[in-house]
Amino acid sequence: MITIRDLHKRFGDLEVLKGIDTTVGKGEVVCLIGASGSGKSTLLRCVNGLETYEGGEITFAGEKVDARSPAIRALRTRVTMVFQRFNLFPHRTALENVTEGPIHVKREPVAAARDHGMALLERMGLAAKAGAYPDQLSGGQQQRVAIARALAMRPEAILFDEPTSALDPELVGEVLGAMRSLADDGMTMLVVTHEMGFAREVADRVLFMHDGRILEEGTPEAVLGNPRESRTRDFLSRIL
User: Fold this and answer.
1) pLDDT of 27-76, one tens digit each?
2) What does the alpha-carbon distance between residue 175 and residue 86 come to, in Å, rounded to a whole number?
3) How far apart are the first and last CA of the chain?
4) CB-based contact 188:150 (threshold 8 Å)
């Protein structure tokens, strides 16, 4: 579903991505791990067309991802993104945040969008919070609203950029639980995470990034349990 070939990205003189090659198949869960600054979040932003790139190519379901293309807005309804910071509209209720995209981007009828939005909030365990504003919700609740918002676009894939990094430890489990449910349903997911337990349990493949490159990839058992690269072992020794 997602194909990345020889991807290069620069910010001025700094080369952040140095020839990334990988794929994500339909229904596959791929976790990106690595130290801060290794290029993980930039890679996700390129896949979603939030960043341009200088070399290589990204395709989604055969269609080229190009941030400068008029087609990028439609593509972002097919591959949505959940960010570290929840990015909810503070003046909108939970339900209004979830229905904003379907109503104003996809032009869905309001009643249908609200019904679907309520079903998604119920799935996230937040039906009772539909009328609450973001500042009335915990961090974990806000992130689950953000996941419901991503699902409201009926995407074919979801990108997660460290979705638990801004949460207090006791709130992490509820967000990871929601993501496990999506994986069980066959959602295609590319996930930047420091939650090694989640990667071990849910991922089909784990990619370890270092200095703008994919240094190692394989099954969770191989990469997390028996890494072949010394840099991978050093990284895991600090976080496990």
Assistant:
1) 999 999 999 999 999 999 999 999 999 999 999 999 999 999 999 999 99
2) 12
3) 31
4) no
| Calpha distance 161→71 (Å, rounded) | 23
The DSSP letter of residue 126 is -
- Cα separation, 30 vs 24, in Å, equals 7
| Cβ 54 vs Cβ 66: under 8 Å | no
Instruction: Give the chain's length.
Output: 240
Burial of 27 (0-12, 13-18, 19+ CB in 10 A): middle
- Structure confidence by residue, pLDDT tens digits, 10-30: 999 999 999 999 999 999 999
85: pLDDT confidence band, cut at 50, 70 and 90?
confident
pLDDT the model gives residue 170: 85
Token pair belonging to 195: 């939650």
Token digits for 1? 């579903």
DSSP type of residue 158? E
Give the pair of three-digit tokens for residue 156. Answer: 């074919």
pLDDT digits (tens, 9 = 90+) for 93-143: 999 999 999 999 999 999 999 999 999 999 999 999 999 999 999 999 999
SS3 content of the chain, % helix, strand, coil (to 5): 40, 25, 35
The answer to whether 89 and 97 are in contact (CB under 8 A) is yes
